[in-house]
Design a protein that fits this description.
The chain is mainly alpha-helical and about 850 residues long. The protein contains 34 helices and 15 strands. The protein has three domains: about 10-55 and about 595-810, CBS-domain, CATH 3.10.580; about 85-315, Orthogonal Bundle (Clc chloride channel); about 340-580, Clc chloride channel (Orthogonal Bundle). A three-stranded mixed β-sheet has the order 7-9-10. The radius of gyration is 31 Å and the shape is elongated. It holds the Pfam family Voltage_CLC.
């Protein structure tokens, strides 16, 4: 067939070619229109459909306009540099400074407190002050009436927890829990709605709140602060949300790829500031939080952690709490230990690892009994009930089982004599109740006392340490998973320290002639408990060494990590974070190693077939129909080839994202093309790109910054398409009837996708191993991966949801069927080939 005459498309912003009539969704998909969407909704409803969890665009779009933009940006302006690197380092320093200020326990966060008002300030202000006052209240009132003291203490605790839970349930639901799990999910490529919103950050601020989430939220907020929108002074045809101030767009750090790097650094700084462990924070982000790592991210994380630790240490010089550096530092424990003590450390680590696995197992069972997230008042009652139980344990256990001991003489680890730490409770003057002291005090101070236990005569008897361990584990398990913005890192350390000290005193009784230090076993117990619960390794070693200042005890700490991880892994398959990720049905987390379930599968087994595609130039009417009837976020772009070429048909030439189509529709970049023509000249390669088109390409990369910034899933919902249709009808007088082809001129309103589509999306053949697909997808941070045949025709598309479904369900039987069908199709294609050359190519014969 002769090639038709070329025609040049002329539009307000672009010059290109068109093919309006060849796109036919029914030709590409034999099912009726909208069948793909119906098939998607026929699958079991998962959490992402309810909460709007979508994938992030870590893979940049390499379009024609982007290539021109990159060439323009090569012009250096400041001593050979553009200034972007300096800006990134400056933002990193600011993140570290803000994180350090947020960790301070008293008055270092007035700016954040002012945002949330008096209630938020009370919640976020000094935990040490509140605990000290509550302990003082208990001591003063328990001497008069135990019941009145209990009621007053419980009432005040319920009031505080009600405020915190109401903020979580009714204002910032993503602030519930530790937050580390969802930080991991976000850095893995899942967009969590409202997770980094300012309300979530305010609800989280406080020492007990997980600093990993706080640091990540601060980093996210810093990246959102770049770029400004012009005021809509005139009623222009352009949407004001899509036009950017050129001076404000030099550094677009709000794209997903750059935000990922800053959030990794912020998460590291949060943990570093919480424990005074800058190196530990970097390693924790590398080992646990981040899925993508590089030398550049490592340096930024180290700078961010250093700034956070230094700022907090400087602030605490004139505050009442010397928490950093080394928030759990101690000085009384003797550094010496012998090699023959290592078997005892291993025994302590074994039992602590068992306790860590036990916590995960019981939590998995208990979590199924909790009220659903939609039953908010039931969750409020649950939190209040657990608070009352906790207060009852704090009051009754010391009364029934506590021991009255003489207040020890000598300085505390910080060199001062703190008589307020020892709680007398019902004991005589000059004595203290050991269980009451451990239960009513700050966990950090209690751990410092446990770490300092040495010699035969110490502050806490063996039986009382065992009781304290059991009570902490009980309260830990029932509170883990409630609607509160608290984590499980510190409770795990406290339970492990108490258990380790208990084991140390037992070993002292068994081996009276040995110089056994219970405090050293407390350090080993804390480390082993963390290893059993979280299954981390190197980062926990460094965190414990930096946080406690116990560099002399690094060998026992390493033994604790290795032994506890090995024991816990053989009892329960996953750590706390991995188990939480498995319970979140809408979060598709991709681990570093491909699962064994994919070993026998290929790309054709896990892909979604019947892909909805677009031509390079597509009628606006058809784009609106597809966007209205589906929630897909990626569409392959095809080019029609003539029959004279080998393998004629629809060739895969690019990929266009949903938000790109929405922005093109919103801006009205339409062209009237002849629907009877199939091929047209595309001259954008030779001509300079208009400045307005460069701004539009930048707006595409910043689309989610100004369209539902914390709920990008709304861009995939029908109301967004309806809004654009209404704007087209109002501003451009373009109704759906006007988009139909003109019967006389055969002109149709269309979009030219070629300047903005991704020209080089990654693809795999249908025979590619599913495990290799997994590695490519996870390593490169992809959102879509197209599957093509030998003629570069799209036969399917793979998303992280497809990989997760294949991993969960397995397709061994389907794989065998596909393998048989593939062999049959290859033989049939070979038999129908016109030449032996084609047959040789098909089977890779010489």
């Amino acid at each position: 067939m002769a090639e038709e005459e070329e025609e040049e498309i002329r539009a307000p912003l672009l010059t290109g070619e068109s093919d309006a009539s060849s796109w036919d969704p029914e030709a590409l998909d034999p099912s009726p229109p909208g069948a793909a969407a119906a098939a998607a909704t026929a699958l079991p409803e998962t959490l992402n459909n309810e909460l709007g969890i979508e994938s992030l665009d870590y893979d940049p779009v390499f379009s024609v306009v982007h290539a021109k933009t990159t060439t323009i940006k090569q012009n250096r302006r400041l001593y050979g540099y553009t200034g972007a690197t300096l800006a990134k380092w400056s933002i990193t320093i600011c993140i570290g400074v803000l994180v350090g200020m947020c960790v301070d326990e008293s008055n270092a966060i007035p700016q954040l407190a002012m945002i949330s008002g008096l209630i938020a300030y009370v919640i976020e202000s000094s935990q040490e002050f509140l605990v000290t006052e509550k302990k003082s209240f208990a001591q003063k009132t328990v001497e008069g009436s135990l019941i009145l003291s209990f009621l007053g203490f419980a009432g005040f605790s319920v009031l505080l927890i009600l405020i915190s839970s109401c903020l979580v349930l009714f204002w910032a639901p993503p602030a519930a829990g530790g937050g580390v799990t969802l930080v991991m999910a976000y850095l893995n490529g899942n967009d969590i709605p409202d997770f980094f919103k300012l309300s979530t950050l305010i609800t989280k601020v406080g020492q007990e709140a997980p600093m990993v989430h706080i640091g990540a939220a601060i980093a996210s907020a810093m990246t959102w602060m770049h770029g400004s929108l012009p005021s809509d002074k005139d009623a222009s045809t352009k949407s004001s949300r899509s036009c950017w101030n050129a001076k404000a767009t030099n550094f677009d750090f709000y794209n997903d790829k750059d935000r990922r790097e800053f959030i990794s650094a912020g998460a590291a700084a949060g943990l570093a500031a919480a424990f005074g462990a800058p190196i530990g924070g970097v390693l924790y982000s590398l080992e646990e939080a981040s899925s993508f790592w590089s030398k550049k991210v490592m340096w930024r994380s180290l700078l961010c952690c250093t700034c956070a630790t230094m700022v907090l240490a400087s602030i605490n010089e004139w505050q009442f709490s010397m928490a950093l550096p080394g928030s759990m530092a101690f000085r009384q424990l003797k550094p010496g230990f012998r090699i023959r003590d290592l078997p005892l450390f291993a025994v302590t680590s074994v039992f602590a690892g068992v306790l860590g696995a036990f916590v995960n197992i019981v939590h998995d069972r208990v979590d199924r009994l909790r009220p659903a997230a939609t039953r908010k008042f039931s969750r409020l009652l649950e939190v209040c009930g657990i608070t009352v139980i906790s207060v009852a344990v704090m009051y009754l256990l010391p009364l029934a089982l506590g021991s009255c001991l003489q207040v020890p003489e000598g300085p505390l680890p910080d060199g001062k004599m703190d008589e307020k730490y020892w709680l007398r409770y019902k004991c005589s003057k000059g004595e203290y109740n050991d269980l009451a002291t451990l239960l009513f005090s700050l966990p950090r101070k209690s751990m410092q006392q446990l770490y300092n236990m040495q010699g035969v005569k110490h502050q806490f008897p063996t039986a009382d340490l065992a009781i304290h361990t059991g009570s902490v584990l009980f309260l830990f398990i029932i509170a883990y998973g409630t609607a509160t913005p608290g984590g499980i890192f510190m409770p795990s350390m406290l339970a492990g320290a108490s258990f380790g000290a208990c084991m140390g005193t037992i070993f002292q009784a068994i081996f009276p002639g040995e110089n056994i230090q219970p405090g050293l076993h407390a350090i080993v117990g804390s480390t082993a408990m963390l290893g059993g619960v979280f299954r981390a390794s190197i980062s926990l070693v460094v965190i414990m060494v930096e946080g406690t200042g116990g560099i002399d005890f690094i060998l026992p700490i390493i033994v604790a990590i290795v032994v506890s991880n090995w024991v816990a892994h053989h009892i329960y398959h996953a750590g706390a974070y991995e188990a939480d990720l498995e319970r979140l049905g809408g979060v598709y987390f991709m681990h570093s190693e491909p699962p064994h379930q994919l070993a026998a599968l290929t790309a054709s087994d896990i892909m979604s077939p019947n892909v909805i595609c677009f031509q390079e130039v597509v009628p606006v009417r058809e784009v609106l129909e597809v966007l209205r009837n589906t929630r897909h976020n990626g569409f392959p772009v095809l080019r029609h080839t003539s029959a004279e070429n080998s393998g004629a048909g629809e060739k895969f030439v690019g990929l266009v994202l949903r938000h790109q189509l929405l922005l093109l529709l919103e801006e009205g970049l339409f062209s009237e093309v002849d629907s009877s023509r199939q091929q047209h000249r595309f001259s954008l390669y030779e001509k300079p790109i208009p400045k307005q088109m460069l701004i539009l390409e930048h707006s595409m990369r910043a689309y989610h910054h100004y369209h539902h910034p914390h709920r990008r899933f709304l861009s995939s919902r029908p109301p967004e398409v309806a809004r654009i249709e209404a704007e087209l009808a109002r501003k451009r007088n373009l109704a759906e009837a006007d988009m139909a082809p003109d019967k006389k001129t055969k002109k149709v309103v269309a979009l030219d996708l070629r300047p903005f589509m991704n020209r080089a999306p990654l693809t795999v053949r249908r025979e590619c191993s599913a495990q290799r697909v997994y590695v490519i997808f996870r390593t490169l941070g992809l959102r879509h991966l197209c599957v093509t045949d030998s003629h570069n025709r799209v036969i399917g598309i793979i998303t992280r949801k497809d990989i997760a479904m294949a991993q969960k369900q397995g397709f061994q039987k389907k794989s065998l069927q596909h393998w048989d069908s593939d062999i049959r199709s290859l033989v049939a294609e070979a038999s129908t080939s016109e030449t032996s050359k084609n047959r040789n190519k098909l089977f890779n014969l010489p």
